[in-house]
Amino acid sequence: MAAPGAVLVMGVSGSGKSTVGALLASELGWKFYDADDYHPEENRQKMGKGIPLSDQDRIPWLCNLHDILQRDVASGQHVVLACSALKKVYRDILIQGKDGAPLKRDESGKEEKTAEVKLLVVHLTGSFEVISGRLLKRKGHFMPPELLQSQFNTLEPPSAPENFIQISVDKNPSEIVVIIMETLK
Ligand SMILES: Nc1ncnc2c1ncn2[C@@H]1O[C@H](COP(=O)(O)OP(=O)(O)O)[C@@H](O)[C@H]1O
Ligand SMILES: O=C(O)[C@H](O)[C@@H](O)[C@H](O)[C@H](O)COP(=O)(O)O
């Protein structure tokens, strides 16, 4: 595949997406987006009450993130996105948009090709015990640790032909960033 214009750092809540994503973006000089900042208020309230999000809750959020990625990458801006992206279909939306359609109509009705976002997917993997231990210590976040089991239940780890690597959260964030940067070379 062509060199990725974007890196998706994915995984369950507490796997270190925000920490690793921000550090990676700063090392690369790329723009950083944290998908948590793009949840509508209803999604935050739902998670805050300990209710897992449904596909219906997540799809508009992912479509919005796809549009942001596509706009930036099309303008030559490289980006790092930290986003749970737990299911394959969610990652497909980030890459292609909701319909995965190769064509879209502009305002004048003309059809034009939509570009896929070339993504390197970085899956941060770890045991329930390690990650729940980190979540229990994390302060000031809307996501309650009780939702972690549902995140593991929902998780579909990336697999071929996705363009992905897996890195253990047992490594520290700097080590993880070095591995990702080596992969991008
Ligand atoms: N590789 C790591 N090793 C040790 N602690 C980590 C690591 N990555 C993240 N953390 C800590 O774990 C907690 C969850 O990390 P965070 O980046 O908020 O995860 P996520 O964005 O996936 O929910 C934070 O308190 C963070 O400082
Ligand atoms: O799809 C989801 O259910 C949410 O996006 C969830 O996966 C995400 O993890 C939350 O936004 C909590 O934020 P943290 O991942 O930072 O805990």
Automatic annotation (TrEMBL):
Pathway: Carbohydrate acid metabolism; D-gluconate degradation. InterPro entries: P-loop_NTPase, Shikimate/glucono_kinase, Therm_gnt_kin. It is an enzyme of class 2 (transferase). This is Gluconokinase. PANTHER family: GLUCONOKINASE-RELATED (PTHR43442:SF3). Keywords: ATP-binding, Kinase, Nucleotide-binding, Transferase. GO terms for molecular function: ATP binding; gluconokinase activity. Its EC number is 2.7.1.12. GO terms for biological process: carbohydrate metabolic process. Belongs to the gluconokinase GntK/GntV family.
